[in-house]
Specification:
heterodimer, A: mainly beta, 8-stranded antiparallel barrel, 3-stranded antiparallel sheet, 1 helix, 6% helix, 62% strand, B: mainly beta, 4-stranded antiparallel sheet, 2 helices, globular
Chain lengths: 215, 337
């Protein structure tokens, strides 16, 4: 859920709270499923955000947002890649959790004037996120456990840009559609890996709907 | 306005930073490929086969002694030695093995104008680095097969290790208690099978076709020191077809056979020892075997701290190699020990 505070032009409302939730869709390398391209093997997930925005001047605002996202780890694709590498039809079992992240960001918003109860905002965010890499276990036929990645956490910076469309149903309340794209490069540990860690490009977009409350 | 533009510029700049390249694919330990790999660096356009593997759990490097007729341009077979060094970082799923020839005094003493085949040895230093063996406790015997007396016979020679070299102790001698006018060869020891009685296995066609035989030495004597041996055909390992080249590593015997149930020509088979008897032979399957001849497998155990699996080195006449018989390496996809 997102709390977006828009400096409303009507009356004295100079801030807003937006709470929204929806689908998280990884893209680019984070959604990659080939070992040759820094893959994240991330699948779709859910997110919830809360955004507070304070209007500054006629066209700008400052945004403070916090949220949580949970995205699937695509065990089927991971299994296929190991199968390709091993060149064997033997049983490969993948046991993996999900990617998770908690984030808090500060941003600069640019908005259009309200027109027929609509307003459109573009927001650039910078912030910090706590990325959680899932535990992954790979078992192959009679050889047993062939790869292990422990669950681990990396706090790292995150960048985000958002497009947000608000439609006000009344002086105080409205509904909201948000689409944002997120970029980060957390450094995850993999103790049995090549360099004991890897920097994973985390790229995903949220497609959310929610409630706007003018404060 | 300038300040706001500056903030936007900084934000976009931060967002455009490119990603670093990293390798994600890996294994907890090194994985030896599960499909056969041609040992290109040590194979020649001639026949290269009949290797002897090391008797220790390989960490990185070992010596591979095998037969080749490259020195005689396709004529008689000699034993030659290559150092095999496996890449230290194999945990990305790739595999590399570097090999280079090494001069071994012992082999110079063994090689003759006749064929030298089927080597096996009881001692090999445990690393590339120099090791000084303990003459009192280290068993250093080298067995091989040669037709220098007419038919294939089993010979042995003792040796010592000096630096990186194996120095022969005396001249090769035949295992007279085993050898007959028929072919005998490919001796392999099964340590500890019978308490205080050294037990070996070998191939012979003394009964018509090639079969696998067991010989037991006298109590507290090595096989070559025993004046008489108790020799018997191992029925469960032998078939109506030819069964050759037994090689034992711990409780696993690998051998080659053209018995029914294979994929054509000679195939690689294995049998497990339960402490008393050998199990029914099992074909290694079509990942390893082909319609061409697969021959003389040896098992190379690896250090479990570093490797996920052990390996087999064998020879094959399959297409795609350097020519004729080539040596191949393949990781075992199951654990035998």
């Amino acid at each position: 859920m997102s709390i977006s505070s828009v400096c409303a032009q009507t009356g004295d409302k100079k801030q807003a709270l937006i709470i929204h939730a929806g689908l998280s869709v990884p893209f680019s390398d984070f959604a990659g499923t080939s070992f040759g391209h820094l893959p994240g093997f991330a699948g779709n997930g859910m997110n919830a955000e809360a955004d507070y925005l304070k209007y500054v001047g006629r066209y700008f605002g400052l945004s403070l947002t916090t949220g949580y996202a949970n995205m699937d780890f695509r065990e089927d694709a991971y299994r296929n890649e190991y199968r390709n590498i091993l060149g064997q039809e033997g049983d490969i079992a993948i046991d993996a959790g999900n990617y998770q992240l908690y984030r808090a960001m500060l941003g600069l918003a640019v908005r259009t004037p309200e027109f027929h109860n609509f307003e459109l905002l573009f927001i650039l965010h910078l912030g910090y996120a706590c990325f959680i890499h899932p535990e992954i276990k790979v078992d192959f036929a009679d050889l047993g456990r062939i790869n292990t990645v422990d669950k681990n956490v990396d706090p790292d910076n995150i960048k985000c840009y958002s497009f947000r469309l608000n439609y006000f149903l009344s002086e105080k309340y409205g509904i909201n559609l948000t689409c944002n794209r997120n970029f980060a490069k957390p450094d995850f540990l993999d103790e049995t890996g090549i360099a004991n860690h890897y920097i994973l490009p985390v790229q995903f977009q949220n497609i959310n709907a929610g409630l706007v409350i003018r404060l | 306005m300038r300040i706001k533009s500056g903030i936007l510029f900084i934000l976009f700049s931060v967002m455009s930073i490119s990603c670093n390249d990293n390798e994600r694919l890996n294994f907890d330990r090194m994985l030896i490929p599960l499909s056969p790999v041609n040992l290109e660096e040590l194979n020649s356009h001639y026949d290269d086969f009949n290797s002897a593997g090391p008797q220790f759990d390989v960490e990185q490097s070992f010596r591979l002694i095998f037969s080749s007729n490259r020195n005689s341009n396709g004529g008689d077979f000699d034993l030659i030695c290559y150092r095999c060094n496996m890449a230290e970082f194999l945990d990305d799923g790739s595999f590399n093995i570097w090999t280079w020839p090494e001069q071994v005094d012992l082999l110079d003493t063994i090689n003759s104008p006749y064929n030298e085949l089927g080597p096996s040895m009881t001692f090999q230093e445990t690393d590339y680095y120099s090791y000084l063996p303990d003459p009192e406790n280290d068993d250093m015997r080298f067995f091989f097969t040669s037709d220098r007396n007419g038919s294939n016979d089993i010979f042995y020679i003792n040796y010592t290790v000096t630096g990186f070299d194996y120095i022969p102790s005396g001249e090769p001698a035949g295992l007279d208690a085993i050898n007959t006018a028929s072919d005998e060869g490919y001796l392999t020891i099964n340590p500890g099978e019978i308490v205080n009685r050294e037990t070996v296995y070998f191939t012979s066609d003394r009964d018509g076709g090639y079969d696998i035989y067991r010989a037991m030495g006298l109590e507290n004597l090595t096989i070559e020191s025993s004046a008489t041996l108790e020799i018997e055909k191992v029925e469960i390992l032998s078939s109506e077809a030819d069964d050759k080249c037994p090689y034992i590593m711990e409780d696993l015997m690998v051998f080659t056979s053209d018995r029914p149930g294979g994929f054509g020509g000679f195939d690689l088979w294995y049998s497990l020892f339960d402490g008393t008897t050998w199990g029914t032979p099992v074909n290694f399957g079509e990942t390893i075997n082909t319609s061409y001849n697969e021959y003389r497998p040896v098992v190379v155990l690896t250090d479990n701290e570093r490797f996920l699996n052990d390996m087999i080195i064998f020879s094959s006449f399959r297409p795609g190699g350097k020519g004729r018989y080539d040596l191949y390496l393949v990781g075992l996809s199951c654990l035998f020990n």
